[in-house]
Amino acid sequence: MNYAIVLAAGSGKRMGTQTPKQFLALAGKPVLAWTLDAFEKANCVDAVVLVTAADQVMVCRELFVSGKVVDVVAGGAERQDSVARGLAAVPELADVVAVHDGARAFVTPEDIDAVVRAAQTHGAAVLGTPVTDTIKRVDGDRVVETLDRSVLRGVQTPQAFRADVIRQAHSEAKIAGYLGTDDTALVEQMGAPVVVVQGRADNVKITTPDDLELGLSILAKRGIVTSKLRIGQGYDVHQLVEGRPLILGGVNIPHEMGLLGHSDADVLTHVVIDAVLGALGAGDIGQLFPDTDAQFKDISSLVLLERVAQVVQEKRAKVLSVDATVMAQRPKLAPHIIEMREKLSQSLGVDIDCVSVKATTTEKLGFVGREEGMAAQAVALVQVG
To answer: Has residue 12 got a pLDDT over 70?
Structure first.
């Protein structure tokens, strides 16, 4: 039998989210699920051992143990340690063991099969692509030489090995105290050959938010997913009272009265929050930031909007446009519109051109016209998937 060890124990610090990158949503399912799907469809892999962080083992067993995924084990401090723990869960009678980074979600079943077959023949194999950039060897900031890129390859995963080869490589590396950057380095260290199998340029590893954007493009190009456009709307009203600052769009506006609320009562930012959450189908401002919670007392609504931007990121969505209108009889808001747009766009993490803010009076009609309060409404266009 041929086994695969899929590594999903990383914390993903460079992603900038609390959720590890392998569990972030990509086109409606976790990144790791896309990876495991490829191994499920690979003809040359019979079983998969998933290696994850110790505190994720039980969750991963519930989510992923089915089909070819037969076990989930806790990883170690280093990548090499995690592979070793995965190897310990692979039966001694296994023929070939492939090792793959769980964050490489776009590997194809065909490439998996190709590298496994190469390992059966040669003992060790790795996917690799030609280097297209000119590569310089440097000493500090001084160029020492230009390397011949025709003999260079950028290697990927999976990397596959006859079981006896990778077990021996890990054993010798442990005795020698050698820490390699990947498993082929351990095989090279003991003097055994490794062959390169032509890989694909789109077998990218998800590391940063930009990689997730690229991943959506890859899936769309393969005809696997299509993105959806969703519209959300927000509407809010706040009472005008004395003794409170007037804050709209994060801008403190000179006025004899301000808006009453549990937070800073920024009615403009509140409707933007509700519009974005509505487009995501993620509830509303009252659900995420209830006025019964002391931590939100007098909090800047821009901080709340930044947290909503994190929700957008975690759902792998993108805010394309926000159009908001403030209804106020006084004061004149036109001089502050640009600053409002700047603050709202910065908190959302989008270009200022994506955020429109308008102001209008109600011609002295209604509670707004009587200067008893202010109202605002917004619509948001969000791309999901």
So the answer is: no
